[in-house]
Amino acid sequence: MATLPGVSGRGPAGEATASGVTSMASTGTSSEDPRKFALRVRGVTKVYRTDSLEVLALRGVDLDMLVSELIVLVGPSGSGKSTLLNILGGLDQPTAGQVLFGDLDLASCGEAALTRYRRDHVGFVFQFYNLIPSLTAEENVALVTEISRDPMDPGEALSLVGLEERRNHFPAQLSGGEQQRVAIARAIAKRPAILLCDEPTGALDSRTGVRVLEAIERVNKVLGTTTALITHNAGIADMADRVLSFADGRIAEVRENTRKRPAKEIAW
């Protein structure tokens, strides 16, 4: 059995279960794993303050994200999932701790450096599609490729998510699932190292949501894009390499799926 990245040794907590899931200690870091890291998080804390209120959103989170890994983040609302995703994407910075992308510490970057990081290395997919209504699917994707260093052709990106025949359609002519797949194509057209998805199926029915998950799965496999996906749907966790369960601003549990379930078999 492969050791979960971030956990030294096997021990009782590392016993494989009959379901093909390995339950591990609640940490995601290791200095011993020989594989390459996409992001390394060390002691990340995030505090939101107002004049009379202080909210501790993250409490000393440690995490290693491996290159080409697909991670699913689960947990109740307010547990810190979206806060961590925003920090990983350079949309926010921690109050304390490090977020390392190679030699770049996002925690100490200025706004210009964070903008370059987001532009060159990160793709975002949100619950709502944020497409421009007056542009076709291909034109929406092309908005990103025009400012990218090494973009793929917009048609190639749409083909990767199964929408090559819908490239000339406007958002109003597309279903919700198709619009979300255009958003995924737009996110990956710049060939990002990291794809961050916040509830990408949250506004979709199960059948449509599975098509979106298949697109994310294909991007992860074909391009090798390191992917982190937030969901409230526990079934989606079965398609991940690792599942991080959040509670009270901490990673409460880390599970490794020794047998990943194909997205087409996910149901809810």
Structural class: alpha/beta
Name the CATH homologous superfamily.
Answer: P-loop containing nucleotide triphosphate hydrolases
In total, how many beta strands? 11
Name the beta content range. Answer: 25-35%
CATH class: Alpha Beta
Give the count of structural domains.
1
| CATH fold type | Rossmann fold
Largest sheet: 7 strands, mixed
**Total count of helical runs of at least 4 residues:** 6
Alpha carbon gyration radius: 18 Å
Mean pLDDT: 88
Uncertain residue segments: 1-26
Euclidean distance between termini CA atoms: 29 Å
User: What topology, given as strand order, has the largest sheet?
Assistant: 1-11-10-4-9-8-7
What is the helix fraction of residues, given as a range?
10-25%
Global geometry: globular
Question: What is this entry, summarized?
Answer:
By secondary structure, the protein is α/β, with parallel strands linked by helices. About 25% of the residues lie in helices and about 25% in strands.
Features:
seven-stranded mixed β-sheet; 25% helix; four-stranded antiparallel β-sheet; disordered N terminus; globular; Rossmann fold; alpha/beta; 268 residues
What does this structure look like?
The protein has a single domain (12-265), classed as P-loop containing nucleotide triphosphate hydrolases (Rossmann fold), CATH 3.40.50. It is 25% helix and 26% strand. It is built from six helices and eleven strands. It has helices spanning 81-88, 111-121, 137-145, 154-160, 176-188, 206-223; strands at residues 21-24, 37-49, 54-66, 70-74, 96-101, 104-105, 122-125, 194-198, 226-230, 242-247, 250-257. The strands form two sheets. The chain has a seven-stranded mixed beta sheet with strand order 1-11-10-4-9-8-7, with helices on both faces. Helix 6 (206-223) links the parallel strand 8 (194-198) and strand 9. Helix 3 (137-145) crosses helix 4 (154-160), helix 3 (137-145) packs parallel to helix 5 (176-188) and helix 5 (176-188) runs parallel beside helix 6 (206-223). The longest helix has 18 residues, at 206-223. The model is unreliable at 1-26 (pLDDT under 50).
